[in-house]
Amino acid sequence: MPPLSVLQPIAHPIFSQHKITVQVKRDDLIHRFISGNKWRKLKYNLLHAKAIGAKGVITFGGCFSNHIHACSFACHQQNLPVIGIIRGEQDNQNNYTLAWAKHWAMKLTFVDRKTYRMRNDEHYLQQLQRQYPDYFIIPEGGSNALALTGVAEVIEELSQQCEFDTLITPVGSGGTLAGLILGDKSQHNLLGIAVLKQQGYLESEVSDLLPLTSKNENKWRIAHEFHCGGYAKFSPQDAEKIRNFSQVVGIDFEPVYSGKMILALLKLIESGYFPAHHRIVLLHTGGLQGLGGMFERGLLNQAEWPSPPATPVP
Ligand SMILES: *Cc1c(COP(=O)(O)O)cnc(C)c1O
């Protein structure tokens, strides 16, 4: 099978200064609405849901979640009814992300934070399953064993596309990094950039997702110095750096996931982390729909950033 996404070399003065090469695996281009790594993670989940004859899908996410956005479109496309259990109040139900989720027929159920915290609790999930016996439950972010199989295909594709030393990905729930670890049989360095403040926790999340035979902790690590203060937090200077980088290389990045990977890349290169002639691949996980909610909240100036995939809000 031909690769699902292209691999694009990028040029930046700092790369040549440090004699390294950087290419971007453009998973952001896989689909207009289904964000890159969410496409990979949903693929085998939805095939499985269909194979077992599920009448629908239930999943979890925050009000601005890329996974909720992606899952609603993907289920719509697959004719699978889908329920989104959303953290927080209904106040946000008409924001960019949720307006589109509703447009694509996701049924939204808002739960308070305390209930939401039980999303991985076995007892809670059993109860939910009894309530919706024929629905297939996909965890927050889509991260489960089936997701890993989909993400592992990134590595298969890369093996046809190039040789490289280090593959870098942003880390949220850890499913993407775990899938890359599972897929990589060639001992590449796999570097995850934590986008939230959870040192230690993220490592165990990744490790717990992996089968025992694939844990191989020698080849992967998560860097925790680049979350800019926490999930979806960033300073105007951080945002400016990301925007500048996008302009220089001609690829859009957003400041919640892929942009933090860019900030990390720049700092690591400056600090001499990568030896000369190192070959880096960045996994562009997508996520540009998230900009919609940032504009609405006035966190970014819409005039300075790319448009999210579909405007205006339906
Ligand atoms: C969800 C998401 C991630 C994080 O992936 P995990 O598998 O949860 O670690 C990274 N980038 C984007 C754009 C995302 O939407």
TrEMBL record:
Presence of keyword Kinase: no
Gene Ontology MF term list: D-cysteine desulfhydrase activity
Protein's UniProt keywords contain Heme: no
Location of N6-(pyridoxal phosphate)lysine modifications: 38
Keywords attached to this entry: Pyridoxal phosphate
One of the Pfam families matching this protein, by short name: PALP
Cofactor list: pyridoxal 5'-phosphate
InterPro entries reported for this sequence: ACCD_DCysDesulf, TrpB-like_PALP, TrpB-like_PALP_sf
Domain Tryptophan synthase beta chain-like PALP stretches: 15-286
Active site (UniProt): 65
Family: Belongs to the ACC deaminase/D-cysteine desulfhydrase family.
Official protein name in the record: Cysteine desulfhydrase
